[in-house]
Design goal:
The structure is a homotetramer.
Chain A: H1 9-19, E1 28-34, E2 39-46, H2 49-55, E3 60-67, H3 75-96, E4 103-107, H4 118-125, H5 130-135, E5 147-150, H6 155-158, H7 162-173, E6 177-185, E7 195-199, H8 218-221, E8 225-235, H9 236-255, H10 259-266, H11 270-277, E9 284-288, H12 291-309
Parallel strand pairs in A: 4-5, 4-6, 6-8
Antiparallel strand pairs in A: 1-2, 2-3, 3-7, 7-8, 8-9
Helix pairs in contact in A: 3-12, 4-12, 9-10, 9-11
Chain lengths: 310, 310, 310, 310
Amino acid sequence: MYNFRTDLADERRDLYRKANNLEEIDGIETEEEQISEKVKVTRVKITNEQGEQAIGKVKGSYITIDIKKINLLTEEEKEQAANTLANELKTLIGEKIQFKEDILVVGLGNEEVTPDALGPNVIKDVEVTRHIINYLPQYIDENARPVSAIAPGVLGTTGIETLEIIKGVVEHIKPKLLIVIDALASRSMERISSTIQISNTGIIPGAGVGNTRKEITQNTLGIPVIAIGIPTVVETAVVVNDALALFIDKLQQEAKSNDYLNHLKEEDNYEQIKEALLPKDFNFIVTPKEIDELILNMSSVVARGINMAL
Amino acid sequence: MYNFRTDLADERRDLYRKANNLEEIDGIETEEEQISEKVKVTRVKITNEQGEQAIGKVKGSYITIDIKKINLLTEEEKEQAANTLANELKTLIGEKIQFKEDILVVGLGNEEVTPDALGPNVIKDVEVTRHIINYLPQYIDENARPVSAIAPGVLGTTGIETLEIIKGVVEHIKPKLLIVIDALASRSMERISSTIQISNTGIIPGAGVGNTRKEITQNTLGIPVIAIGIPTVVETAVVVNDALALFIDKLQQEAKSNDYLNHLKEEDNYEQIKEALLPKDFNFIVTPKEIDELILNMSSVVARGINMAL
Amino acid sequence: MYNFRTDLADERRDLYRKANNLEEIDGIETEEEQISEKVKVTRVKITNEQGEQAIGKVKGSYITIDIKKINLLTEEEKEQAANTLANELKTLIGEKIQFKEDILVVGLGNEEVTPDALGPNVIKDVEVTRHIINYLPQYIDENARPVSAIAPGVLGTTGIETLEIIKGVVEHIKPKLLIVIDALASRSMERISSTIQISNTGIIPGAGVGNTRKEITQNTLGIPVIAIGIPTVVETAVVVNDALALFIDKLQQEAKSNDYLNHLKEEDNYEQIKEALLPKDFNFIVTPKEIDELILNMSSVVARGINMAL
Amino acid sequence: MYNFRTDLADERRDLYRKANNLEEIDGIETEEEQISEKVKVTRVKITNEQGEQAIGKVKGSYITIDIKKINLLTEEEKEQAANTLANELKTLIGEKIQFKEDILVVGLGNEEVTPDALGPNVIKDVEVTRHIINYLPQYIDENARPVSAIAPGVLGTTGIETLEIIKGVVEHIKPKLLIVIDALASRSMERISSTIQISNTGIIPGAGVGNTRKEITQNTLGIPVIAIGIPTVVETAVVVNDALALFIDKLQQEAKSNDYLNHLKEEDNYEQIKEALLPKDFNFIVTPKEIDELILNMSSVVARGINMAL
């Protein structure tokens, strides 16, 4: 399979169409809605196996909310973005469980690492009600839905596979649905902390070498899982690879025909670039200098959206 | 039972002896060791039911490490304090499980509230090895013990009773022993973030009205639980109550005999003080202005001590 | 002079009236306004030397804004509180300088110590415009007032008397007015991070032994200084002293007459309590457990109020 | 002049030698010292105008300390790195001022932005003595040097040009020497938060379009300025540009001769890449995912080095 290097269904569809010169992909339906000048929703639905094969994602709904200039939004624009998230979320939740059934919200990531802190940050602002309904029911509306929230940390700091922690909690408190907030990979720097992907398929990590992350889905947990994913970084080698592709295009335009370049372009230079360019000890990422502020703004939009929906 | 308003076995024993004019309490053995000018260890052992009754703590070992002027310790003195903790911990662990058996470290508390952040702070610095032993055994000493660590948050922010989260994780990763780090109540302002109590009995919250915290012990979890507790605040009403007791002593010395004052002293004025003096909406505590720094210093000592012991 | 142990003109006036059984104090005018259920404004004006003598504050306006349950305010209520601050501030500024004249905002305090971080926190959210007006005037409304903002730190971490830093900056950028945000002492636990005092007299630290803080006023800086002060802690000895006063009252009611107690009450037991009760190495304070959150909420209200006013 | 896009004298010398096929550059002396397996010192001295012209830096000493794998250093290795910094610093200070003369340490940067927080972080750990020498001389060694420290913030958050704040403070407290800690640009991802450049020339920002930063040197302040600079980010366009250069090299090796490619290589593609590849609203940087931890480690090494030297 083509290595998309993005978790966004939206971007994968575009890459596949471009690579195969297609207008439409069988098994994939798309719908766009411009909510306002700054907020756009794209709904990608994978309806059959051909669609699954094409872009390497399982059947289900993948809704992308793009927010322009999130760092400069006014309070009302933030409210609107949160509202858009709330509406999409309500629709997906309504398809799976009843009104008033328990929901557990899980924020993945390491809060000590700025671009990875989005999940735990959101959890801090999710309004939990389960304990009030259990212990102090007189203080809460009788129609309130029980909501609980955890930030399970990451394997590197807990020593425990995240799925195991979630499983343990799910078995004990028995929610009817899980909402998982996670960081995604994207190809586009413009989308860093400015795009939200909501899907009703849960989280299925790419099948990479040595990848020990496990899927967080109805298969592994027994309850429906809605994933809210936000791109927070782009890998440096992806950026350079994309730059080279642009550059080779330019060379080809000048040189008319050039077998060697054609050949080069077919290759995927990602691994070579990674080896040639990047020091081994660290994982280099491209990030806007304003990342700390971007993450705080996005955390606040996502937490508000979740609170409105629940 | 007398309301001790302290979780330290050490302080309870002293209060009981003073109130009853006793030199020794049946069923309680004590041993002191001055490790250095700044570090002192007191080992209190409750050996029978009479001891249990006297100070309201279950049978077991309660070891108190007092560290003087923790904010001014040199690197070597911190190392020494951590070392003292490591030695006591190793002894207690060695009585319960074998060399190389799994340990899970749990840091209780809310990291967003300064005096409550000690547990989560320690977790950040505990060296976890379980995932390395599982996934990358070639990178670690073959005698390393599997250690994992979680900070489960608090009921108010997760909506989930802490014991339920711990139970879920324990059932899934099946450690052989639990170490729990918790904040304690103390009567003495000098002990705030300067004293460590280690006990092999786990955590048994006081049986107060409306107290929904559950015990974290071998009874509830099925594996031995070692508790590391640190006093981080003193309640304002406790301080005022103690001040009044001193004051009444002084009045009595002057007035020679005074039935009314004697009567007053027998009463416990805590609830009245609380009502008369303290605004209802908040929980007022006495804390040193340097609490942020004290908590950081203590977190570092405890994390180092745990790392040495494991 | 009576030792008021509060910086709030409001509280001093009440203490003075009570101690002297007065209804009115010559040279002090007071006006109250209930803005809403949760927000109340009290304006104390000291008009002559007798007023100055009575409560130990220099002539000028002292406006107190009390906000009830600041941690539970809705967005609109916060907006209203900020608006109230903005209005009072605009009046005081309008009496001193012209529309469009430069203002420098200074946030005193140590941001590493929770209750002392209010000033620096506010500075982070003040919208500065001076550099835009100087370097990119095309991007800003031509009627915008040049605003700049600094957090000069505290003597203990900079080694420099705060006044010296402010003087240096004032001489270089030549603002026409200074707004200084500072933490205050109060007698009342209810007012911690819930009350704002605005005054047009600047900051004049109490004349205590060994007090090396210097005044920040028109005298020392040559431009008008508006002080925004917020009580963030209460000293433990003050709380105990107040408790003892209540207690002695109660004893007297029972005992009818009691010369010894009368005598005791005339004394100020503060220093004795401090000595008897408090460990020497730390500065003990009473604080609500929710102080971290309270400080964040108050910082946001004050920053918004300043931004609206400027 | 060639656009080096690095502030490291070390890297500029290498780029100049490579571009001009030189072994030595007239007016530039170099000396290397391997302190230990992980710590290397390179001393570059610019001795005349030809050297200045060649690499675009003024006459003076530029000492680079490279620390390998700073995130994995043991306590002793950190001590050694700090010690190396202390020794170089002591030499440079000793050439300018007397024993016991006042020093002011200034940490540039915005502490709210992770890669820019290094300067303010170091200031938090610098041991200041000036106020103790002034107010409590009995508590300090009589040979102690008066040290003070400030973090003046950045233009975007204060509205004030940093140089103006420093000037104001320097005029008031009259130190004899300034140490300024700053973030640098580098070409190499390996050097991010792993290299320290110390120079006795102060800070002279590149003469870019619209660059409003002013130099911080003896010229502008009247006292010697020692600059400690640490690379904390690499610009994305620099990385891609370097990748393209490598790529063109490879194409040329294959194609033997190729006028078009030669021509391309002579050009600097930086501006084109920036335009083609990077979204306009943000300033994209390449950074290791571990940047938060790297910055903390480097801050601690630099603060210790400064404390030892002073």
